[in-house]
């Protein structure tokens, strides 16, 4: 329709020239508006005849103003584009990078986010001080905590929306440009929008932007003090194919003294990792031709603190934890290698329950330099018994074969991880160096010798059921007010988190003590009396018959009343041990 209207205008102009007449400039706007707004000439004639006012004058002024504004805008953007190309520097950050979230968080704290007329609201988190301050306001007349009232006090975070924003930092003008782009991952998937941030500054050097990014990283580290970052393989298909890791969450670092393990064992582990992470270690390893890798195997019954120790070590040494599940049906050997290749220079890689990972043994599983036989004599098993490996492989096959499920990656590898594939990722020729590998298992006897040989697992740590000293420490930690000194065991020995446990003690976020925080269940029991009660509590329980998790769960249900815990512990212990015996007998019968 627009094309036909333009034809009318051009035809009218040609007819005017053909008839020897000339179209006046004052008539041009009317002709143009008539082409776009049918009936405009009739309206203007009606106004002229009844009110004696020429609408064309206003239209002419409006068209002229619009033309000038458009021309100035075009020239401005043209000049700005040329200036930016030759006299401005830029750094791009996409949303798959961890720095992207840090930049948005930092920008949200700046003044320009408060003045911007285009912002994006993001659900915020409330700090510890604010949560304590607003705690009483969320209690009703009966003392019931109303979570909706409390969460309503959490203000959202406002960050600049898509577009160009300007801000000053240390006397330097920066341009913050947030945009999104459509990315087609492959022929089998639909396009997906991905966000992009461009930071620019005046000058032909990117050094001011690099300094700003360093400042943002330092700021982010300071705001996340006493927290441990957990990462998992990326859920974004594009970054997953490249071996990317997503930041799952950051949680408060767990103090090392809260892990129920023999103090001497914790001291040994801390000293070993501390020596390995020392800046002089890479040179020492390289001179002797030893790969810079360190592996640990934590084994023992469920609930004894194997994974908890891994997270506590991460908080102690300020390392990120990269959690990897070998039961992921979309995980292939090529993607596993890419994930290990993209690990940071220093981190902890956690492989939980490695015995139930369903590793497929093949002829290449053995290290040619090892003396491990290629096959082990198989033991007789009951026909009705299914091993963990069989169940894991069945789950993988069923999930991979389900319609719409991931059957293979872009390289064409079939799902499932073989033992040789895992070994190649851990210590192959192209394997990553510098990481701390921690594997946990409930059944170390089920692991292949090739997986736990020296060089792949350098230190094996056995976790036992709760000893009397551990039960004593759990009781004191449960009822001690926040901010008190770390509990010592019944023999008066300090825990592994004390200064004697670390060969090179340094200030750490996990050992920082804060002021006591009042809670509705904190018992007012002096520490000396509490330790006496803890010894009595520990004497009532058998040693190495209960897991620390079971003891802690019992105390959690009585966290307001340590006296009641002392009264009920014997009955609870007898009932729990009786239930365990019945379960053991039932399993033997089956």
Automatic annotation (TrEMBL):
<keyword id="KW-1133">Transmembrane helix</keyword>
<feature type="region of interest" description="Disordered">
    <location>
        <begin position="396"/>
        <end position="415"/>
    </location>
</feature>
<feature type="compositionally biased region" description="Polar residues">
    <location>
        <begin position="487"/>
        <end position="513"/>
    </location>
</feature>
<comment type="similarity">
    <text>Belongs to the AAA ATPase family. BCS1 subfamily.</text>
</comment>
<dbReference type="InterPro" id="IPR003960">
    <property type="entry name" value="ATPase_AAA_CS"/>
</dbReference>
<dbReference type="InterPro" id="IPR057495">
    <property type="entry name" value="AAA_lid_BCS1"/>
</dbReference>
<feature type="region of interest" description="Disordered">
    <location>
        <begin position="482"/>
        <end position="518"/>
    </location>
</feature>
<dbReference type="Pfam" id="PF25426">
    <property type="entry name" value="AAA_lid_BCS1"/>
</dbReference>
<feature type="domain" description="BCS1 N-terminal">
    <location>
        <begin position="59"/>
        <end position="259"/>
    </location>
</feature>
<dbReference type="InterPro" id="IPR027417">
    <property type="entry name" value="P-loop_NTPase"/>
</dbReference>
<protein>
    <submittedName>
        <fullName>BCS1 N terminal-domain-containing protein</fullName>
    </submittedName>
</protein>
<keyword id="KW-0812">Transmembrane</keyword>
<dbReference type="InterPro" id="IPR003959">
    <property type="entry name" value="ATPase_AAA_core"/>
</dbReference>
<dbReference type="InterPro" id="IPR014851">
    <property type="entry name" value="BCS1_N"/>
</dbReference>
<feature type="region of interest" description="Disordered">
    <location>
        <begin position="360"/>
        <end position="386"/>
    </location>
</feature>
<feature type="transmembrane region" description="Helical">
    <location>
        <begin position="51"/>
        <end position="69"/>
    </location>
</feature>
<dbReference type="Pfam" id="PF00004">
    <property type="entry name" value="AAA"/>
</dbReference>
<feature type="domain" description="AAA+ ATPase">
    <location>
        <begin position="292"/>
        <end position="467"/>
    </location>
</feature>
<keyword id="KW-0496">Mitochondrion</keyword>
<keyword id="KW-0999">Mitochondrion inner membrane</keyword>
<keyword id="KW-0378">Hydrolase</keyword>
<keyword id="KW-0547">Nucleotide-binding</keyword>
<dbReference type="InterPro" id="IPR050747">
    <property type="entry name" value="Mitochondrial_chaperone_BCS1"/>
</dbReference>
<dbReference type="InterPro" id="IPR003593">
    <property type="entry name" value="AAA+_ATPase"/>
</dbReference>
<keyword id="KW-0067">ATP-binding</keyword>
<keyword id="KW-0472">Membrane</keyword>
<dbReference type="Pfam" id="PF08740">
    <property type="entry name" value="BCS1_N"/>
</dbReference>
């Amino acid at each position: 329709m627009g094309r036909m209207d333009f034809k009318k205008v051009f035809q009218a102009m040609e007819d005017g020239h053909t008839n020897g007449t000339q179209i006046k400039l004052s008539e041009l706007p009317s002709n143009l508006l008539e082409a776009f707004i049918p009936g405009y000439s009739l309206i203007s004639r009606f106004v002229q005849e009844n009110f004696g006012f020429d609408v064309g004058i206003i239209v002419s002024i409006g068209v002229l103003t619009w033309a000038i504004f458009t021309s100035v805008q075009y020239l401005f953007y043209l000049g700005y584009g040329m200036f930016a190309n030759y006299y401005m520097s830029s750094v791009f950050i996409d949303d798959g990078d961890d720095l992207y979230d840090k930049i948005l968080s930092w920008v949200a704290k700046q003044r320009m986010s408060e003045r911007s007329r285009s912002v994006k609201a993001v659900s915020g988190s409330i700090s510890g001080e604010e949560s304590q301050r607003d705690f009483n306001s969320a209690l009703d007349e009966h003392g019931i905590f109303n979570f909706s009232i409390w969460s309503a006090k959490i203000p959202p975070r406002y960050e600049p929306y898509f577009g160009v924003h300007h801000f000053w930092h240390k006397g330097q003008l920066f341009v913050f440009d947030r945009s999104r782009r459509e990315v087609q991952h492959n022929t089998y998937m639909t396009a997906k929008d991905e966000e992009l941030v461009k930071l620019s500054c005046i000058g032909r050097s990117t050094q001011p932007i690099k300094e700003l990014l360093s400042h943002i990283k330092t700021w982010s580290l300071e705001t996340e003090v006493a927290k441990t970052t957990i990462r998992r393989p990326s859920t974004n298909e594009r970054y997953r194919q490249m071996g990317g890791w997503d930041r799952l969450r950051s949680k408060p670092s767990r103090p090392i003294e809260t892990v129920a393990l023999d103090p001497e064992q914790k001291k040994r582990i801390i000293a070993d990792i501390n020596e390995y992470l020392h800046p002089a270690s890479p040179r020492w390893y390289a001179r002797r031709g030893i790969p810079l890798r360190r592996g640990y195997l934590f084994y023992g019954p469920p609930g004894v603190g194997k994974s908890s120790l891994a997270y506590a070590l991460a908080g102690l040494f300020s390392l990120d934890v990269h959690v990897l599940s070998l039961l992921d049906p979309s995980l292939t050997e090529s993607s596993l290698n890419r994930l290990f290749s993209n690990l940071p220079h220093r981190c902890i890689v956690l492989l939980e329950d490695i015995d139930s990972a369903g590793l497929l043994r093949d002829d290449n599983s053995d290290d040619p330099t090892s003396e491990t036989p290629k096959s082990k004599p198989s033991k007789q098993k009951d026909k009705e018994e299914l091993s963990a490996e069989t169940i894991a492989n069945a789950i993988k096959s069923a999930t991979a074969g389900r319609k719409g499920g991931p059957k293979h990656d872009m390289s064409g590898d079939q799902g499932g991880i073989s033992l040789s594939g895992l070994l190649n990722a851990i210590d192959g020729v192209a394997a990553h160096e510098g990481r701390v590998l921690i594997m946990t298992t409930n059944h170390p006897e089920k692991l292949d010798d090739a997986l736990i040989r020296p060089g792949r697992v350098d230190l094996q740590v056995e976790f036992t059921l709760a000893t009397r000293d551990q039960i004593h420490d759990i009781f004191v930690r449960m009822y001690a007010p926040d901010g008190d000194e770390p509990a010592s065991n019944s023999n008066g020995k300090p825990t592994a988190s004390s200064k004697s446990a670390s060969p090179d003690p340094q200030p750490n976020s996990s050992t920082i003590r804060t002021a006591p925080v009042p809670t509705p269940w904190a018992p007012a029991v002096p520490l000396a009396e509490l330790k006496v009660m803890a010894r009595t509590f520990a004497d009532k329980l058998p040693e190495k018959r209960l897991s620390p998790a079971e003891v802690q769960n019992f105390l959690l249900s009585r966290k307001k009343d340590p006296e009641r815990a002392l009264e009920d512990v014997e009955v609870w212990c007898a009932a729990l041990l009786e239930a365990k015996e019945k379960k053991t007998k039932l399993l033997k019968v089956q």
